[in-house]
Amino acid sequence: MHSTVSQPILLLNCGSSSIKYQLLQTDTQQPTAMGIVQRVGQGSSTLDHETGGQKFHLDQDFANHTEAMAAVVAMFHEHGPALDEVIAVGHRTVHGGDTFQESVLIDDAVIATLIELSDLAPLHNPPAIAGIEAAMLVLPNVPHVAIFDTAFFSTLPPEAYTYAIDREVTARYGIRKYGFHGTSHQYVSQKVAEFLDRPLSELKTIVCHLGNGASISAVDGGVAVETSMGLTPLAGLVMGTRSGDVDPGLHKFLGSKGMSLDDIDTSLNKQSGMLGLCGFTDMRDVATEIAAGNADAKLARDVYVHRLVSYIGAYIAILGGVDAVCFTAGVGENAAHIRGPVIERLKGMGFELDVAANEQRSTEAREISTPDSKVHVLVIPTNEELAMARETMAVIGR
Predict the structure, then answer these.
(1) What φ, ψ does residue 215 adopt, rounded to 5°?
(2) CA-to-CA distance for 110 and 356, rounded, in angstroms?
(3) Torsion sign over Cα 394, 52, 18, 301
(4) Which of 59, 61, 119, 149 is catalytic?
(5) Residue 41 vs residue 49, higher pLDDT
(6) CA dist., res. 136 & res. 304, Å (int)
(7) Catalytic annotation on 108?
Protein backbone atom coordinates (compact mmCIF):
# COMPACT_ATOMS: atom_id res chain seq x y z
CA MET A 1 0.00 0.00 0.00
CA HIS A 2 2.33 2.72 -1.19
CA SER A 3 -0.02 4.76 -3.35
CA THR A 4 0.39 8.52 -3.06
CA VAL A 5 -3.19 9.30 -4.07
CA SER A 6 -5.74 8.83 -1.31
CA GLN A 7 -7.94 5.84 -2.12
CA PRO A 8 -10.46 5.08 0.61
CA ILE A 9 -11.50 1.49 1.35
CA LEU A 10 -14.64 0.69 3.32
CA LEU A 11 -14.08 -2.17 5.80
CA LEU A 12 -17.03 -4.08 7.23
CA ASN A 13 -17.18 -6.53 10.12
CA CYS A 14 -20.72 -7.87 10.55
CA GLY A 15 -21.73 -9.74 13.68
CA SER A 16 -25.03 -11.47 14.32
CA SER A 17 -26.62 -8.21 15.50
CA SER A 18 -23.99 -5.60 14.65
CA ILE A 19 -22.05 -3.90 11.85
CA LYS A 20 -18.65 -2.38 12.66
CA TYR A 21 -17.21 -0.26 9.89
CA GLN A 22 -14.21 1.89 9.09
CA LEU A 23 -13.29 4.09 6.13
CA LEU A 24 -9.52 3.78 5.77
CA GLN A 25 -7.28 5.95 3.57
CA THR A 26 -4.71 3.85 1.77
CA ASP A 27 -2.10 6.64 1.58
CA THR A 28 -2.04 7.57 5.29
CA GLN A 29 -3.24 4.15 6.52
CA GLN A 30 -5.50 6.12 8.87
CA PRO A 31 -9.31 5.97 9.26
CA THR A 32 -11.31 9.07 8.29
CA ALA A 33 -14.53 7.62 9.69
CA MET A 34 -15.63 4.70 11.82
CA GLY A 35 -18.77 3.49 13.46
CA ILE A 36 -20.93 0.71 14.76
CA VAL A 37 -24.54 -0.40 14.41
CA GLN A 38 -25.77 -2.41 17.38
CA ARG A 39 -28.85 -4.53 18.17
CA VAL A 40 -29.76 -5.18 14.52
CA GLY A 41 -33.02 -7.13 14.42
CA GLN A 42 -33.45 -6.86 18.19
CA GLY A 43 -35.50 -3.66 18.44
CA SER A 44 -34.03 -0.40 19.81
CA SER A 45 -31.07 -0.47 17.36
CA THR A 46 -28.41 2.25 17.54
CA LEU A 47 -25.94 3.70 15.04
CA ASP A 48 -22.84 5.62 16.14
CA HIS A 49 -20.75 7.36 13.48
CA GLU A 50 -17.49 9.21 14.10
CA THR A 51 -15.62 11.45 11.67
CA GLY A 52 -13.44 14.58 11.87
CA GLY A 53 -13.52 14.53 15.66
CA GLN A 54 -17.34 14.65 15.71
CA LYS A 55 -19.72 11.93 16.87
CA PHE A 56 -23.22 11.33 15.53
CA HIS A 57 -25.82 9.05 17.12
CA LEU A 58 -29.02 7.56 15.74
CA ASP A 59 -31.69 5.52 17.53
CA GLN A 60 -33.68 3.60 14.94
CA ASP A 61 -34.90 0.03 14.68
CA PHE A 62 -33.24 -1.97 11.90
CA ALA A 63 -35.03 -5.24 11.16
CA ASN A 64 -32.03 -6.69 9.31
CA HIS A 65 -28.53 -5.97 7.99
CA THR A 66 -29.91 -4.53 4.72
CA GLU A 67 -31.78 -1.77 6.58
CA ALA A 68 -28.78 -1.16 8.85
CA MET A 69 -26.37 -0.92 5.91
CA ALA A 70 -28.65 1.58 4.15
CA ALA A 71 -28.60 3.71 7.33
CA VAL A 72 -24.78 3.56 7.44
CA VAL A 73 -24.63 4.83 3.84
CA ALA A 74 -27.13 7.59 4.71
CA MET A 75 -24.95 8.58 7.69
CA PHE A 76 -21.92 8.92 5.40
CA HIS A 77 -24.05 10.91 2.95
CA GLU A 78 -25.26 13.31 5.65
CA HIS A 79 -22.12 13.75 7.78
CA GLY A 80 -19.31 12.62 5.46
CA PRO A 81 -16.92 11.65 4.23
CA ALA A 82 -18.45 10.92 0.82
CA LEU A 83 -18.45 7.27 -0.25
CA ASP A 84 -18.26 8.05 -3.99
CA GLU A 85 -14.43 7.89 -3.80
CA VAL A 86 -14.43 4.37 -2.31
CA ILE A 87 -12.42 1.99 -4.50
CA ALA A 88 -13.34 -1.28 -2.75
CA VAL A 89 -15.16 -2.85 0.20
CA GLY A 90 -13.38 -5.40 2.40
CA HIS A 91 -15.51 -7.85 4.40
CA ARG A 92 -14.31 -9.80 7.43
CA THR A 93 -15.49 -13.34 6.83
CA VAL A 94 -14.90 -15.80 9.64
CA HIS A 95 -14.98 -19.25 8.05
CA GLY A 96 -13.52 -20.11 4.65
CA GLY A 97 -13.48 -23.87 5.25
CA ASP A 98 -11.22 -25.87 2.96
CA THR A 99 -12.40 -23.84 -0.03
CA PHE A 100 -10.91 -20.39 0.64
CA GLN A 101 -7.26 -20.29 1.64
CA GLU A 102 -6.74 -16.65 0.70
CA SER A 103 -8.83 -13.51 0.30
CA VAL A 104 -11.10 -13.50 -2.78
CA LEU A 105 -13.14 -11.19 -4.95
CA ILE A 106 -16.79 -11.80 -4.09
CA ASP A 107 -19.24 -12.99 -6.75
CA ASP A 108 -22.42 -15.10 -6.67
CA ALA A 109 -20.45 -18.36 -6.57
CA VAL A 110 -18.43 -17.17 -3.55
CA ILE A 111 -21.63 -16.21 -1.70
CA ALA A 112 -23.18 -19.61 -2.51
CA THR A 113 -20.12 -21.37 -1.08
CA LEU A 114 -20.19 -19.20 2.07
CA ILE A 115 -23.82 -20.21 2.60
CA GLU A 116 -22.76 -23.89 2.32
CA LEU A 117 -20.03 -23.29 4.93
CA SER A 118 -22.39 -21.62 7.41
CA ASP A 119 -22.87 -24.69 9.59
CA LEU A 120 -19.13 -24.53 10.44
CA ALA A 121 -19.56 -21.02 11.90
CA PRO A 122 -23.28 -20.59 12.61
CA LEU A 123 -22.73 -17.52 14.80
CA HIS A 124 -20.44 -15.74 12.34
CA ASN A 125 -20.98 -16.64 8.68
CA PRO A 126 -24.73 -15.89 8.26
CA PRO A 127 -24.41 -12.24 9.45
CA ALA A 128 -21.27 -11.82 7.32
CA ILE A 129 -23.21 -13.02 4.26
CA ALA A 130 -26.10 -10.69 5.13
CA GLY A 131 -23.61 -7.81 5.42
CA ILE A 132 -21.98 -8.68 2.09
CA GLU A 133 -25.33 -8.80 0.28
CA ALA A 134 -26.51 -5.56 1.91
CA ALA A 135 -23.26 -3.75 1.05
CA MET A 136 -23.30 -4.99 -2.55
CA LEU A 137 -26.85 -3.65 -2.82
CA VAL A 138 -25.91 -0.12 -1.71
CA LEU A 139 -22.39 -0.05 -3.26
CA PRO A 140 -22.86 -2.11 -6.42
CA ASN A 141 -20.17 -0.55 -8.62
CA VAL A 142 -17.00 -1.32 -6.62
CA PRO A 143 -15.23 -4.63 -5.99
CA HIS A 144 -16.09 -6.45 -2.76
CA VAL A 145 -13.44 -8.68 -1.16
CA ALA A 146 -13.87 -11.45 1.43
CA ILE A 147 -11.03 -11.69 3.95
CA PHE A 148 -11.05 -14.97 5.85
CA ASP A 149 -10.17 -15.47 9.52
CA THR A 150 -9.12 -19.01 8.62
CA ALA A 151 -6.80 -18.22 5.68
CA PHE A 152 -3.56 -17.66 7.65
CA PHE A 153 -3.95 -21.13 9.19
CA SER A 154 -4.31 -22.94 5.87
CA THR A 155 -0.55 -23.65 6.22
CA LEU A 156 -0.98 -25.88 9.30
CA PRO A 157 0.68 -29.28 8.75
CA PRO A 158 -1.65 -32.32 8.60
CA GLU A 159 -0.58 -33.56 12.03
CA ALA A 160 -1.74 -30.23 13.50
CA TYR A 161 -5.08 -29.94 11.73
CA THR A 162 -6.21 -33.60 11.75
CA TYR A 163 -8.52 -34.86 14.50
CA ALA A 164 -8.12 -38.48 15.65
CA ILE A 165 -11.63 -39.53 14.58
CA ASP A 166 -12.97 -41.86 11.85
CA ARG A 167 -11.26 -40.65 8.67
CA GLU A 168 -14.39 -41.30 6.58
CA VAL A 169 -16.43 -38.99 8.84
CA THR A 170 -13.66 -36.41 8.56
CA ALA A 171 -13.72 -36.59 4.74
CA ARG A 172 -17.52 -36.53 4.50
CA TYR A 173 -18.02 -33.40 6.59
CA GLY A 174 -14.75 -31.50 6.08
CA ILE A 175 -13.86 -31.85 9.75
CA ARG A 176 -10.44 -30.44 10.70
CA LYS A 177 -8.84 -27.67 12.72
CA TYR A 178 -9.28 -24.41 10.80
CA GLY A 179 -8.20 -21.73 13.29
CA PHE A 180 -9.50 -18.15 13.56
CA HIS A 181 -8.33 -14.56 14.18
CA GLY A 182 -5.88 -15.27 11.35
CA THR A 183 -5.81 -11.66 10.11
CA SER A 184 -4.65 -10.52 13.54
CA HIS A 185 -2.12 -13.34 14.06
CA GLN A 186 -0.55 -12.66 10.66
CA TYR A 187 -0.40 -8.87 11.17
CA VAL A 188 1.08 -9.14 14.67
CA SER A 189 3.67 -11.78 13.78
CA GLN A 190 4.92 -9.47 11.01
CA LYS A 191 5.00 -6.56 13.47
CA VAL A 192 7.14 -8.64 15.87
CA ALA A 193 9.80 -8.98 13.15
CA GLU A 194 9.67 -5.22 12.48
CA PHE A 195 9.90 -4.38 16.19
CA LEU A 196 12.90 -6.69 16.74
CA ASP A 197 14.43 -5.60 13.41
CA ARG A 198 14.94 -9.21 12.37
CA PRO A 199 13.90 -11.12 9.26
CA LEU A 200 10.47 -12.71 9.68
CA SER A 201 11.83 -15.85 8.04
CA GLU A 202 14.13 -16.62 10.96
CA LEU A 203 11.80 -15.91 13.89
CA LYS A 204 9.88 -18.40 16.02
CA THR A 205 6.95 -16.48 17.50
CA ILE A 206 3.97 -17.23 19.72
CA VAL A 207 1.09 -14.76 19.35
CA CYS A 208 -1.54 -14.53 22.12
CA HIS A 209 -4.64 -12.79 20.72
CA LEU A 210 -6.61 -12.17 23.91
CA GLY A 211 -9.92 -10.39 23.53
CA ASN A 212 -13.48 -11.46 24.34
CA GLY A 213 -12.62 -14.23 21.89
CA ALA A 214 -9.10 -15.56 22.46
CA SER A 215 -6.65 -17.68 20.51
CA ILE A 216 -2.94 -18.44 20.39
CA SER A 217 -0.71 -19.35 17.46
CA ALA A 218 2.74 -20.77 16.82
CA VAL A 219 4.39 -19.05 13.85
CA ASP A 220 7.65 -20.38 12.41
CA GLY A 221 9.37 -18.07 9.91
CA GLY A 222 6.11 -16.24 9.22
CA VAL A 223 4.21 -19.50 8.62
CA ALA A 224 1.49 -20.66 11.03
CA VAL A 225 2.17 -24.19 12.29
CA GLU A 226 -0.31 -24.45 15.18
CA THR A 227 -3.27 -22.61 16.71
CA SER A 228 -5.76 -23.14 19.52
CA MET A 229 -9.16 -22.63 17.86
CA GLY A 230 -10.37 -25.60 15.86
CA LEU A 231 -13.25 -26.63 13.61
CA THR A 232 -15.14 -23.78 15.30
CA PRO A 233 -14.03 -20.74 17.35
CA LEU A 234 -15.06 -22.54 20.57
CA ALA A 235 -11.86 -24.54 21.13
CA GLY A 236 -8.71 -23.55 23.00
CA LEU A 237 -8.24 -20.79 25.54
CA VAL A 238 -10.71 -19.57 28.16
CA MET A 239 -12.65 -16.62 26.66
CA GLY A 240 -15.19 -13.99 27.74
CA THR A 241 -18.23 -16.25 27.35
CA ARG A 242 -16.74 -19.34 25.63
CA SER A 243 -15.40 -22.32 27.54
CA GLY A 244 -12.46 -23.16 25.30
CA ASP A 245 -11.30 -26.77 25.68
CA VAL A 246 -13.57 -29.17 27.56
CA ASP A 247 -13.78 -32.97 27.71
CA PRO A 248 -15.61 -34.02 24.50
CA GLY A 249 -17.61 -36.41 26.70
CA LEU A 250 -19.20 -33.40 28.42
CA HIS A 251 -21.82 -33.13 25.66
CA LYS A 252 -23.13 -36.67 26.26
CA PHE A 253 -22.94 -36.24 30.02
CA LEU A 254 -24.99 -33.01 29.95
CA GLY A 255 -27.35 -34.59 27.40
CA SER A 256 -28.00 -37.43 29.85
CA LYS A 257 -29.00 -34.78 32.41
CA GLY A 258 -31.71 -33.48 30.09
CA MET A 259 -29.94 -30.66 28.20
CA SER A 260 -30.52 -30.52 24.43
CA LEU A 261 -27.61 -30.15 21.98
CA ASP A 262 -28.68 -26.54 21.36
CA ASP A 263 -28.76 -25.86 25.12
CA ILE A 264 -25.27 -27.30 25.53
CA ASP A 265 -23.94 -25.29 22.57
CA THR A 266 -25.48 -22.08 23.93
CA SER A 267 -24.04 -22.80 27.37
CA LEU A 268 -20.49 -23.40 26.07
CA ASN A 269 -20.54 -20.45 23.63
CA LYS A 270 -22.47 -17.79 25.53
CA GLN A 271 -22.64 -18.67 29.24
CA SER A 272 -19.19 -20.12 29.96
CA GLY A 273 -15.64 -18.77 30.07
CA MET A 274 -15.05 -15.87 32.46
CA LEU A 275 -18.80 -15.14 32.57
CA GLY A 276 -19.60 -18.68 33.68
CA LEU A 277 -16.74 -18.82 36.19
CA CYS A 278 -17.25 -15.49 37.94
CA GLY A 279 -20.05 -13.49 36.32
CA PHE A 280 -17.77 -10.94 34.62
CA THR A 281 -16.35 -10.83 31.08
CA ASP A 282 -14.38 -7.56 31.32
CA MET A 283 -10.91 -8.17 32.78
CA ARG A 284 -10.99 -4.74 34.46
CA ASP A 285 -14.03 -5.89 36.44
CA VAL A 286 -12.29 -9.17 37.21
CA ALA A 287 -9.24 -7.29 38.59
CA THR A 288 -11.50 -5.07 40.73
CA GLU A 289 -13.33 -8.11 42.09
CA ILE A 290 -10.06 -9.92 42.91
CA ALA A 291 -8.85 -6.84 44.81
CA ALA A 292 -12.15 -6.87 46.75
CA GLY A 293 -11.55 -10.49 47.77
CA ASN A 294 -13.90 -12.24 45.32
CA ALA A 295 -12.72 -15.88 45.32
CA ASP A 296 -14.67 -16.77 42.16
CA ALA A 297 -12.95 -13.96 40.24
CA LYS A 298 -9.52 -15.09 41.45
CA LEU A 299 -10.22 -18.70 40.43
CA ALA A 300 -11.48 -17.52 37.01
CA ARG A 301 -8.24 -15.60 36.40
CA ASP A 302 -6.16 -18.54 37.63
CA VAL A 303 -7.95 -20.92 35.22
CA TYR A 304 -7.45 -18.38 32.39
CA VAL A 305 -3.72 -18.05 33.15
CA HIS A 306 -3.21 -21.79 33.63
CA ARG A 307 -4.74 -22.59 30.24
CA LEU A 308 -2.66 -19.90 28.51
CA VAL A 309 0.60 -21.07 30.15
CA SER A 310 -0.20 -24.66 29.12
CA TYR A 311 -0.58 -23.63 25.48
CA ILE A 312 2.57 -21.46 25.46
CA GLY A 313 4.59 -24.37 26.88
CA ALA A 314 3.18 -26.76 24.26
CA TYR A 315 3.91 -24.33 21.43
CA ILE A 316 7.51 -23.78 22.56
CA ALA A 317 7.92 -27.56 22.25
CA ILE A 318 6.27 -27.64 18.80
CA LEU A 319 8.45 -24.76 17.54
CA GLY A 320 11.60 -26.27 19.11
CA GLY A 321 12.25 -23.03 21.03
CA VAL A 322 10.87 -19.50 20.78
CA ASP A 323 12.29 -16.04 20.08
CA ALA A 324 9.27 -13.95 21.08
CA VAL A 325 5.94 -14.26 22.84
CA CYS A 326 3.57 -11.46 21.96
CA PHE A 327 0.34 -10.27 23.61
CA THR A 328 -2.29 -8.47 21.53
CA ALA A 329 -6.03 -7.51 21.36
CA GLY A 330 -8.08 -5.91 24.14
CA VAL A 331 -7.02 -8.10 27.07
CA GLY A 332 -3.54 -8.83 25.74
CA GLU A 333 -2.75 -5.15 25.24
CA ASN A 334 -4.28 -3.81 28.46
CA ALA A 335 -4.44 -6.44 31.22
CA ALA A 336 -1.10 -6.33 33.06
CA HIS A 337 -2.65 -8.57 35.75
CA ILE A 338 -2.99 -11.35 33.14
CA ARG A 339 0.39 -10.91 31.41
CA GLY A 340 2.34 -10.72 34.69
CA PRO A 341 1.31 -14.09 36.16
CA VAL A 342 1.70 -15.80 32.76
CA ILE A 343 5.33 -14.67 32.38
CA GLU A 344 6.12 -15.38 36.06
CA ARG A 345 4.91 -18.96 35.51
CA LEU A 346 7.34 -19.29 32.57
CA LYS A 347 10.42 -18.22 34.58
CA GLY A 348 11.84 -21.74 34.50
CA MET A 349 11.99 -21.51 30.69
CA GLY A 350 14.15 -18.38 30.70
CA PHE A 351 11.44 -15.70 30.72
CA GLU A 352 12.18 -12.57 32.78
CA LEU A 353 9.43 -9.98 33.29
CA ASP A 354 10.17 -6.27 33.60
CA VAL A 355 7.48 -5.55 36.20
CA ALA A 356 7.50 -1.76 35.72
CA ALA A 357 7.31 -2.07 31.91
CA ASN A 358 4.41 -4.53 32.23
CA GLU A 359 2.44 -2.14 34.47
CA GLN A 360 2.89 0.82 32.10
CA ARG A 361 -0.17 1.72 30.00
CA SER A 362 0.57 2.49 26.35
CA THR A 363 -0.93 2.20 22.89
CA GLU A 364 2.55 1.67 21.39
CA ALA A 365 4.36 -1.57 20.62
CA ARG A 366 6.70 -2.31 23.52
CA GLU A 367 8.86 -4.92 25.23
CA ILE A 368 7.96 -6.03 28.76
CA SER A 369 10.80 -8.48 29.34
CA THR A 370 14.18 -7.59 30.88
CA PRO A 371 17.43 -7.46 28.85
CA ASP A 372 18.39 -10.74 30.61
CA SER A 373 15.29 -12.59 29.40
CA LYS A 374 16.05 -15.43 26.98
CA VAL A 375 12.73 -14.73 25.24
CA HIS A 376 11.43 -11.36 24.08
CA VAL A 377 8.02 -10.66 25.60
CA LEU A 378 6.19 -8.01 23.59
CA VAL A 379 2.88 -6.16 23.65
CA ILE A 380 1.90 -5.19 20.11
CA PRO A 381 -1.48 -3.58 19.31
CA THR A 382 -3.31 -5.44 16.59
CA ASN A 383 -4.85 -3.54 13.67
CA GLU A 384 -7.17 -5.92 11.88
CA GLU A 385 -8.68 -3.10 9.81
CA LEU A 386 -5.30 -2.13 8.38
CA ALA A 387 -4.52 -5.78 7.68
CA MET A 388 -7.91 -6.13 5.96
CA ALA A 389 -7.25 -3.02 3.87
CA ARG A 390 -3.90 -4.44 2.72
CA GLU A 391 -5.56 -7.74 1.80
CA THR A 392 -8.30 -5.90 -0.10
CA MET A 393 -5.70 -3.88 -2.04
CA ALA A 394 -3.74 -7.05 -2.83
CA VAL A 395 -6.83 -8.77 -4.24
CA ILE A 396 -7.97 -5.88 -6.41
CA GLY A 397 -4.35 -5.39 -7.48
CA ARG A 398 -4.28 -8.92 -8.89
Answers:
(1) -155, 160
(2) 50
(3) positive
(4) 149
(5) 49
(6) 41
(7) no
